Amino acid sequence: MKLTHSVPCLFSLMLLFGISINGHAQVQVEVFTDMPMQLGSVLGIDVIHYDLSAPEKVKSKYLPALPGDVGLASQIMKNYLASPQGQEFKAVIREAYRGHEKMVRYQLEKIPAVVFEQGQYVVYGITDVQKALALYNAHRNQRALP
User: Fold this and answer.
1) Can you spell out the DSSP letters for 107-134?
2) Is pLDDT at 53 greater than 80 in this prediction?
């Protein structure tokens, strides 16, 4: 094997997968769905999953049942939110809505969506990170051609 051929190949692969020489991830991929799911990992890719159904699950798990009396319900919620359980709820619900915040920021039109470069590129309709990465790379390579 000639070194002159292997170095350009290695460099091309590093560019393709966004891996630096020291091995740290260079590409971040965000996946938006409306259900919990296990996503496969891809070497050199930092995959973040946002389950947009999470806030409803958090509410049903943490919030107390409230009476029909608005005044009494308001007082119960005020006391609950001041309690340690209420403080935990606020932190958990804030994290649960992070995906919604990003979805609005990226102006996503539908889910599922796989997002690259902080909303610059979006692949709709799939959750397979490897397939989305292939489409993303093909698009970028096509744009790079003269």
Assistant:
1) T--SSSEEEEGGGTEEEES---HHHHHH
2) yes
